[in-house]
Amino acid sequence: MSTAPGPAARWERYVALGDSMTEGLWDVDPAAPETLRGWADLLASRLAERRDGPLEYANLAVRGRLLGEIVTEQLPAALALRPDLVSLVGGGNDLLRPGSDPDALAALMESAVEKVRATGADVLLATGMDAHDSPVIRATRPRVAVFNAHLWTIARRHGAHVLDVWGMRSLRDWRMWAEDRIHLSTEGHERVTQGALVALGLGAETPDWDDPLEPLPPAARAERLREDLTWLRTYAGPWVGRRLRRRSSGDARAPKRPRPQVVEIPGR
């Protein structure tokens, strides 16, 4: 997706907080195949391109983190870095759990937003994805919808920006998702980056950034069944097993970019 002229970015230090989505699963960095990139890294690059001076960027997100862990572990570390832009995206892992309380999660999120805004920094939130088309995760849809409604209210109260993932038409296509059907593909992360630019008032780089893909021919029922069985065996089963053992894929993992570093722009 080519870069188009747009408004200048005013922020000098951006810190990203969150879980696997912000860590960047499963967008592999083509310049460093052993590392993950993701929408927040891409956003940092786009913001840097729209600045005359340097942009510093840190990413404290770790896969599997619950919102309480993000607020208690990542938020204090982020505030110590004195950012002027913070993306705070979490709650998805909580809402996947039966019995989770979106009202309580929203109260926790609002407290975190208040702390960031008290420093003068801007905040970028993100709604949860609409799981209408997922036969497994669809059961979480009512909880996610309530949490999303709270996020819009929190943003209004405290002057935050909202990345409207729920409303993105392009993400209703499974080609925007990785094989595990929970995390974004490389193209999905790119689309979310464009949505983040829109949320920040900078405008997307192309007018068709959220257009749906051309539909594929319908797959045969037997093929869909094979794919579903492979998914259950490869991804769903291990995920359920970790939950039963109260383990997380992010246990013992550290943030990939814990200290602010200047974002390098090719050609500058």
Describe this structure in words.
This protein is α/β, with parallel strands linked by helices and about 270 residues long. The protein has a single domain, classed as SGNH hydrolase (Rossmann fold). It has eight helices and six strands. A six-stranded mixed beta sheet has the order 5-4-3-1-2-6, sandwiched between helices. Helix 5 runs parallel beside helix 6. It is globular, with a radius of gyration of 18 Å. The protein starts with 12 loop residues before the first strand and ends in a 6-residue tail after the last strand.
Fold blueprint:
Blueprint: E1 13-18, H1 20-23, H2 39-49, E2 56-59, H3 67-80, E3 85-89, H4 92-95, H5 102-118, E4 122-126, H6 141-158, E5 161-163, H7 186-199, H8 221-244, E6 257-262
Parallel strand pairs: 1-2, 1-3, 3-4, 4-5
Antiparallel strand pairs: 2-6
Helix pairs in contact: 2-7, 3-5, 5-6
CATH architecture: 3-Layer(aba) Sandwich
- How many E strands? 6
Q: Number of DSSP helices?
A: 8
- Elements, N to C (H/E): EHHEHEHHEHEHHE
Distance between the termini: 20 Å
Strand arrangement across the biggest beta sheet: 5-4-3-1-2-6
Percent of residues in β-strands: 5-15%
> Given this structure, which CATH class is correct?
Alpha Beta
The geometry reads as globular
> Helical residue percent?
25-40%
CATH superfamily, called what?
Answer: SGNH hydrolase
**Structural class based on helices, strands and sheet pairing:** alpha/beta
Using only C-alpha atoms, the radius of gyration works out to 18 Å
- Main β sheet profile: 6 strands, mixed
Low-confidence stretches: none
Overall number of structural domains: 1
